[in-house]
Structures are given as C-alpha cells and as structure tokens.
Amino acid sequence: MGRILAIDYGTKRTGLAVTDEMQIIASGLTTVETKALLAYIKTYLASENVETIVVGLPKQMDNTASESEVYIQKFLKELVKLAPEMPIVRVDERFTSKMAFQTMIDSGLKKKQRKNKALVDEISATLILQSYLSSL
C-alpha cells in the first residue's frame, strides 16, 4: 500500500495531510504557499510512495460549487500533467475550516496560536483526509 495525500487548496496557502503506509492514520503534513505547491508535490511524490491524491471539493450550502472551485480546476489540470497516472479523488470539504478551528480550541491552543492560518489549513487537510478514509 502507498500513502494517500490530501490537499486543502487555497489561493494563498494550501494545507497538506498524509496517511501512513497502511492508510490507517491521517496526519497533518505541512502548509505550502500555493505558488510553490506543484514543485512541493513533485518532490514529495518522487520521495514517497503515494497511491492516491485527495483534493477538497468546496461547496456552498445549496450544494453548488464555491467560488474557489475555479482556481482548484486550474490546479487540477496542472496536477494531472505532473502525475498523469495518479488517481485523484474529490472530497466535500464543507465545514472543515470551522471544524479545524474547533479542534484547535478543543486541544487547548492559545488564542494567538489559533490565529495561525497555516495550521488551520493543515488541520483542514487532515479532516478532508479523515473523511475520505472513513468513506472507504
């Protein structure tokens, strides 16, 4: 088995999460500036055994695509060029940012630490990945 890489795409920063090789545990990996994302993924795929990439699918409450989906579609075209054989799965990411923030509160992080948007993005990617694992 290979790892599963999850991406919480943002126009400025993108949160990444990954499973262990047995695909049991979802863990935050890092947050990357979006302009450096494809280079980071290329390096990561060259050094790790990744089986699937999961990308968040942002939707409005009425189930329509959110405004950020336009940017994600552009990114997905580049990702397919980078890794044409890699399966890419989309997972509904509604509420992940709110859940990530609540997770930070529940884990006892101070208010200053909770303002770290990079950490929110990484936790959001982890929640997207956990949602995908739960659906398997």
Automatic annotation (TrEMBL):
UniProt KW Cytoplasm keyword: yes
Keyword Nuclease: yes
Listed CDD domains: YqgF
Keywords assigned by UniProt, alphabetized: Cytoplasm, Hydrolase, Nuclease, Ribosome biogenesis
Enzyme class: hydrolase
Signal sequence, start to end: none
Primary localization: cytoplasm
Compartments it resides in: Cytoplasm
Highest taxon of the lineage: Bacteria
InterPro entries: RNaseH-like_sf, YqgF, YqgF/RNaseH-like_dom, YqgF/RNaseH-like_dom_sf
Domain YqgF/RNase H-like residues, every copy: 2-100
The EC number(s) this enzyme carries: 3.1.-.-
Entry's family note: Belongs to the YqgF HJR family.
General function of this protein: Could be a nuclease involved in processing of the 5'-end of pre-16S rRNA.
PANTHER family per the UniProt record, alphabetical: POLYNUCLEOTIDYL TRANSFERASE, RIBONUCLEASE H-LIKE SUPERFAMILY PROTEIN
Protein name: Putative pre-16S rRNA nuclease
Organism annotation: Winogradskyella rapida
Gene, per the UniProt record: ruvX
